[in-house]
Specification:
Distance between the termini: 28 Å
Radius of gyration: 19 Å
CATH class of the domain at 22-150 and 190-237: Alpha Beta
Structural class: alpha/beta
CATH architecture of the domain at 22-150 and 190-237: 3-Layer(aba) Sandwich
CATH superfamily of the domain at 22-150 and 190-237: Decaprenyl diphosphate synthase-like
Bound molecules: 3-methylbut-3-enyl trihydrogen diphosphate, magnesium ion
């Protein structure tokens, strides 16, 4: 839901003093990174996993409480079967290789997206990652896998509709908070900042409901090149924004 903005006046200038609690990243550009080097797209995806590791480390080091990474969209199934297989394999490898380390670091893993059309081995790996790290309290790593915002909203509406039909819920009792509670992201604060790499200026069906008041940073760098410096650059950009949430500047309220 929409947080209360926190601001501070420094030399008469309204500043956003908050560093983001939740950063969500559309990790784009693996294919172009590989193409620019005459390499197959699969190599770009493998290098992309390295950038994921660095982003999780950076988020932890900078005290970002929630990091959501868009890893595979509900539309990415339309890619050639070989590439889809490669991306599924990389997710499995990432969880098998990195889960123990993430757990040791106190990272809590959550996965958003549809599960019903994933293979049983992937489903059980995702459940293992969530169950093992359930009580961890450092960074929350949210992996958006097989995720599409319209699909998420549709599934939430189906669950709400079932409750109405069963008489468990009055249509009039339906609120934005209740819709929130039926989303895959239930319990996770809305993203303060959404970063997209690779220069594309679109959301590609990512967090449409939750992004209502997010700040956006679009960066030209391709995902495998996204390092701590790039992450800090995006945070600096975020820090210069004044979030008004439909209100007016706090200095105008004061005057
Ligand atoms: C992002 O890189 C990774 C996924 C979408 C899975 P792309 O594979 O989309 O790379 P480009 O956009 O083709 O360069
Ligand atoms: C968005 O990237 C999905 C992920 C980063 C997982 P795409 O590369 O799939 O998006 P479009 O097709 O350029 O919009
Ligand atoms: Mg892309």
């Amino acid at each position: 839901m929409i947080p209360v903005p926190s601001r501070q006046t420094v030399s008469g200038k309204v500043m956003s003093v908050r560093s983001p609690e939740h950063v969500a990243i559309i990790m784009d550009g693996n294919g172009r990174w590989a193409k620019a080097r005459g390499l197959p797209r699969s190599i770009g995806h493998r290098r992309g996993v390295e950038a994921v590791r660095e982003a999780v480390r950076t988020a932890g080091a900078l005290g970002i409480r929630y990091l959501t990474l868009f890893a595979f969209s509900s539309e990415n199934w339309s890619r050639p079967a070989e590439e889809v297989g490669e991306l599924m394999g990389l997710l499995k490898l990432f969880i098998r290789r990195d889960l123990a380390d993430l757990h040791k670091e106190g990272v809590r893993v959550r996965v958003i997206g549809a599960r019903n059309n994933l293979s049983p081995d992937i489903r059980s790996l995702l459940e293992e990652a969530e169950n093992l790290t359930r009580n961890n309290t450092s960074t929350n790593l949210v992996i958006a896998f097989n995720y599409g915002a319209r699909d998420e909203v549709t599934r939430a509406m189906q669950r709400i509709g079932e409750k109405i039909v069963l008489g468990e819920l009055e249509p009039k009792a339906l609120t934005a908070e209740l819709i929130d509670a039926h989303m895959d992201t239930a319990g996770i604060p809305d993203p303060d900042l959404i970063i997209r790499t690779s220069g594309e200026l679109r959301l590609s069906n990512f967090l449409l409901w939750q992004a209502a008041y997010s700040e956006f940073v679009f960066m030209p760098c391709l995902w495998p090149d996204f390092d701590r410096k790039a992450f800090e650059e995006a945070l600096k950009d975020f820090a210069s924004r004044e979030r008004r949430f439909g209100s007016v500047s706090s200095c105008e309220i004061a005057s």
